[in-house]
Amino acid sequence: MAQPKRDDDREPISIRRRPSGVRRAQRASERADVALAVTVRYGDGTVVEGIAKNLSLGGAYVEALPPAPFGSAVVLYLPLPGFSEPAPIDAIVRWNAETGMGVQFGLMGARLTHALTEMLRAETAPPSGEPRLP
Question: Which structural domain, as residue segments, surrounds residue 90?
Fold first, then answer.
C-alpha cells in the first residue's frame, strides 16, 4: 500500500518520475551527436584515445577502451574553437559500458564554457535558411 507523501519528500526539480514510478534524472542541457577525436587521461595516468559521440555543456559519452571505472576522475582533452591545442576538461565517470563511458564535466572557466557553447551551437544549428527554434 502506498504511503502518503510527507512534506520532506520534495523532489529536486531535476528529478522526474517515469510512468513506471521509477525516478530518473533529466539532463540540464541539450546534447549534440558528434564524432570528435579526444584524448582521455585516467586518474592513474593512463592515456587513451577515444571518440566523443555525444556532447553537452554538462558531459559526454566517450567511446574509449578500456573505459574508466564508475566514479573515476578523468581529464578529457577536447578540440575546441579558439584553442590551439585540445582543451582539458575535468570530469567524473557516471556510468560505463563495454565500449565507453558517460562523463559529467566538472567546473569550467568562462573561456572553456564559451568555446564549448559555440561548438555546440554550430553542431546543433539547423541547415541554412531554416529558423533556429528557441
Answer: 26-123
60 occurs within a structural domain = yes
Q: What is the pTM of this model?
A: 0.71
Q: β-pairing, 23-25 with 15-17?
A: antiparallel
Q: Is position 73 within any domain?
A: yes
Is 98 within a domain? Answer: yes
- How many folded domains does the chain comprise? 1
Q: What beta strand segments (E) does the chain contain? A: 15-17, 23-25, 32-42, 47-55, 59-64, 73-78, 87-96, 100-105
89 lies in some domain = yes
What confidence tier does 29 reach under pLDDT thresholds 50, 70, 90? low
Q: Which three cell numbers stand for residue 45?
A: 595516468
Closest Cα partner for 63 from 33, 24, 107, 25? 33
Q: Determine the pLDDT at residue 56.
A: 93
Closest listed residue to residue 96, CA positions, set 73, 134, 67 = 67
CB contact at 8 A, 28 and 21: no
DSSP state of 44: T
